Structure formats: structure tokens, C-alpha cells
Amino acid sequence: GENVEQHPSTLSVQEGDSAVIKCTYSDSASNYFPWYKQELGKGPQLIIDIRSNVGEKKDQRIAVTLNKTAKHFSLHITETQPEDSAVYFCAAQPGYSTLTFGKGTMLLVSP
Amino acid sequence: NAGVMQNPRHLVRRRGQEARLRCSPMKGHSHVYWYRQLPEEGLKFMVYLQKENIIDESGMPKERFSAEFPKEGPSILRIQQVVRGDSAAYFCASSPPEGGHIQYFGAGTRLSVL
After folding, report:
1. CB of B34 within 8 A of CB of B98?
2. Quick check: A102 and A89 in contact, CB under 8 A?
3. pLDDT digits (tens, 9 = 90+) for B5-36
4. Cβ separation of B91 and A44 shorter than 8 Å?
């Protein structure tokens, strides 16, 4: 089955800096890659996703890149703000089956 | 349009009791997924259901765990004879009937087994 590795496990940045979280996947059949943000005591919230026919997608301060050849994808957050502090999860999905998640990255943005 | 609703938010059970977790998908959604999250871990897939059908239960423990999504009413994840190792957050997600990828998550049920 699919296996997703996520790095780093924790990331501390100063407000205004950029943050990058990286994930690799194992199943070449995976064609959908969402990113979720989870705040303490809440459920995961979808923040951005990318499909395998696209190399990059942006939504305001958030961007995701995908390299299918290397089987890795990354989340980029620019101009970080304290409210960006949360746990971020990447996931991969082969076909229309279930999501396989990475173990998460705790992002801490200091004012 | 209400999101995915899970209840209860918190559930405390003693070892050997039964736990029932409920999930109402977003309006118009007919696909439901259950995931388990242990402390400082990612979400682990348990089971994927459509109305009255279990599509994929490859992540479900073989014993004590069961799930259903009846024609009417919420999806239920049932854990019989709970043990301390069942303590975790259980999340439900739903997606629309035309399939596709996007899954929307509920706020979860935090199960504590004493």
C-alpha cells in the first residue's frame, strides 16, 4: 500500500518568514495530494490540494508543488503569521481510494 | 450547509464497555470514512462506507470494531469491550456521491478508556 513520509516533524519560524514542509510517497498510482491543517482539539481542515496533472498550485500565501518523477510534494507558506501555527498533514490517494497521511508537522510561528 | 457532525465530542468508557461513535456527513454526501488518530501521530484509515455498504474495511481491527452507514441516520463506529489501547481521537470524513477525492472532516470524538 501507499506510504507517506513527512518532514520536518516540527518547524519554528519567525513571523513573516516562509515555511516549507516536504512529503514523499511510494505508490506511483497516487494522483491526488491534499494538505490539511489541524488546530488543537479540532478536526483536520483542507487548506490546499493538487492533482497529478498539475505541477504547482497557489492560493494566496499558500502554494503546493508536486514532482511526480521524484514522488515528492511540498507545502510552502509565505509571510507566516501566528495564526498559521498548527499541525499540518500531507496525504496521498491512489485513484479514488482512501487517503494515506503523513505523521504531521507542528508549525510554530513566533511573533 | 452544516459540515460533518460527530458526536459525542468526548466519550469516557471503562474497560470492557462498548463505545458508539456517530457521524452525520455533510448534506448531500453519501461517502463516509473513519480514521483514528493516536497522540502525535497522523490519521490512520479504518473504514470506507457508502449507504448500506462497506466499501473498504482494510484498516479495521479484526475483532471488536464494526461500522455501519444505514439508509437513514448517521454512520456508527462501534467498539465492543474497549481496552486502554483504544483511547484515541476518531475522525469521520465525508465526500459527495459523485466520488472524487475531496474529504471533509468532522471535529472528532475523543475516546478515553479508563
Report:
1. no
2. yes
3. 999 999 999 999 999 999 999 998 889 999 99
4. yes
